[in-house]
Amino acid sequence: MYVCESPVGESRKTKTVERQNSAAGTNSENAMNTKHNDPFPWLPLEPYCRKWGISAGTPIDRYYIDQFLHRLSPEIRGHVLEVKSDDYARRYGDPNRIVSVDVLDVLTDNKKANLHLDLAHADGIPAESYECFILTQTLNLIYEVRAACTHAVRILKPGGTLLGTVSAVNRISAEDGGLDDDYWRFTSGSIRKIIEGIPRASHLRIWSYGNVLACCAFLYGVPAEAIQPDRLDYVDPYFPVVYGFSVIASELAA
Fold first, then answer.
1. Is 193 part of a structural domain of the chain?
2. Which end of the chain is more exposed for a tag (fewer CB within 10 A), N or C?
């Protein structure tokens, strides 16, 4: 099953967004139809913050990731796996429902991690190990993304949940090797195509977060605190910043 949902309610229909964008687009196109006349001279060529606005507040993608994990927090239970740290599991999971949290990172110098391996080659993790895998903002940086998702589902116990987020819009990674090791930006269609056909992957749900204002602000490094929440929470499915998705692992094949 595949469902694409609005994170803030079903009343915001795509056709409404299209009508609004069509009306606004006419004025925008007229404004830009002046040859050799830059209609946006005030826009800077450099971002206000090159690292997503983190120097001034909360990066906009993290604002949406928090919404997604808060929404799906009941799925954070039992034996949990998370990438880089256990921050999200501890923040959003009920401690009375969490048995343990393992931390995965390909980088061996991360002292918070107790599993050091590449998710695309994660044969070292036994099948059916976890009830929940929190996989945020990682698949963009893995070239063999389908293999990584296959392992992500394989290591879940039957009924376990993969909670993933991926970038639709983002700068190139600011981490070392970003220019060479940042591979993908996603759409709802590409998420669906990747998950389809993975053994035991079922009940895919996808949430879109963001709009054209949020996209521009995020690229400029404007923090979430600088924008009114209702403007950030408006969802235009044609201009997402982040996708959140969940997958349920079915029973093991006989």
1. yes
2. C
Q: With contact defined as beta carbons under 8 Å apart, do 188 and 235 qualify?
A: no
Beta strand ranges found along 76-226 (DSSP E)? 78-83, 98-104, 130-136, 156-167, 201-209
Question: Is 65 domain-assigned?
Answer: yes
Task: Give pTM, 2 decimals.
Answer: 0.86
Instruction: Specify the amino acid at residue 246.
Output: S
Looking at residue 21, what is its pLDDT? 52
Question: DSSP string covering 185-245, please?
Answer: ---HHHHHHHHTT-TTEEEEEEEEE--HHHHHHHHTT--GGGS-HHHHH---TTS-SEEEE
DSSP H or E stretch at residue 68: helix 60-71
For 179-224, the pLDDT digits (tens) are 889 999 999 999 999 999 899 999 999 999 999 999 999 999 999 9
Distance CA 128, CA 130 (A): 6
* DSSP tag of 12: S
Structural domains in the chain (count): 1
Per the CB < 8 A criterion, the answer to whether 39 and 31 are in contact is yes
Q: What is the dihedral of CA 126, 152, 201, 162, to 10 degrees?
A: 120
- Residue span of the structural domain in which 134 resides: 2-6+45-249
If we measure between CA atoms, which residue out of 163, 207, 169 comes closest to residue 12? 207
Determine, yes or no, domain membership for 35: no
Share of the chain above pLDDT 90, in %: 77
Contact 201, 195 (CB under 8 A): yes
CATH code of the domain in which 135 resides: 3.40.50.150
20 lies in a domain?
A: no
